[in-house]
Amino acid sequence: MAADPSPRMLITNKGPCVCYIAWTPRLNGFWKLSFTGHYKYESKTASVGCIMRYHNAVLKAAFAQHVGMVSSFTRAQSTAFSRALEFAKREGVDYLEIEGNHPFVFRIMWGDVTRTSSVIRGLVNKCRCDLRQIRSVRLRHVNMYGNLAANLLARIPLQPQQERSWSGRNKWNSSEGCDRSLDPFLGPMSESSFG
Fold first, then answer.
1. Cis, bond preceding 103 (omega within 30 deg of 0)
2. Which parts of the sequence are annotated with region: Disordered (predicted)?
3. How far is Cα 48 from Cα 38, in angstroms, rounded to an integer?
4. What global pTM score does this model have?
5. pLDDT higher than threshold 50 for residue 183
6. How high is the mean pLDDT of the chain?
7. I need a surface site. Which of 29, 88, 122, 134 has the fewest CB within 10 A?
C-alpha cells in the first residue's frame, strides 16, 4: 500500500484563527489601525472593532465592543472611528496609518460632508482633537476584503454590553455588565464616547 502523499493536518477549534496580512510601514515606527463599525438595521444596535498591527501582521492589540442603540449607520461608523483613535492613544502609538472601508467617515472628518447630526458633529470634533495628539497620521480607504479582519472582529460582540480586547500586556478580556470598563487594559471610557 502506497503512502498517503497528502500532508497530515491537525484541525482544532481551541486556538485562534490567524489571517496573515503582510504590510510594510512607510517609515519605522508606524503602526496600522484597521477599524469598522457593524450596524444592525432591525434593532438599530451597533458594535465596533479595530485591530492594531505592525509590519508582517505582528498584532499589537485588538478591540471589539458592543456600542448599543445608535440612530444610523453613519453614527455607527463615526463611533467606530472615535473608539479606534481612543484605543490607539491608550496604546501609546505616535505614528499611525488608519484604514477603513467606509470612505464617507474620512470625508466627514475633513469637512467634505457638512450635513450631519449634532451627535456626529460632536464625534467628529472629538476625533479631530484625538488626531492632533498623534504625531503622524495617514488615513487610507480600503475595500471590504482589505479590512476583513476588522469587519469580522466588529461582529463578535453580538451580546449586549459585552467587550473583548487583546493586547500584548494581557490576554483576552471579556466583561459583562454595564461598567463599560476594561481596566487595566483601557481604563474607563467616558460616557460621551458611547454615541
1. no
2. 165-195
3. 6
4. 0.68
5. no
6. 73
7. 29
As a whole number of angstroms, the distance between CA 158 and CA 156 comes to 6
Distances (CA, A) of 13 to 10, 16, 17, 167, 173: 10, 8, 8, 21, 19
Higher pLDDT among residues 172 and 80, named by residue: 80
The pairing of strands 95-100 and 136-141 is: parallel
Nearest C-alpha neighbor of 40 from the set 32, 31, 48: 48
Place of cell 460632508: 113
Helix (H), strand (E) at residue 82: helix 73-91
Contact 62, 166 (CB under 8 A): yes
73: three-class secondary structure by DSSP = helix
Residue-wise pLDDT tens digits, 30-49: 888 999 999 988 889 899 99
For domain 30-168, say whether CATH 3.30.420.10 is its number.
yes
E strands, the chain, in order = 30-40, 45-53, 59-69, 95-100, 136-141, 162-167, 170-176
Span 133-158, average pLDDT: 85
| Residues 76, 128, 147: CA angle, nearest 5 degrees | 45
The full set of domain ranges for the chain reads: 30-168
pLDDT recorded at residue 36: 92
Cell numbers describing residue 148: 476583513
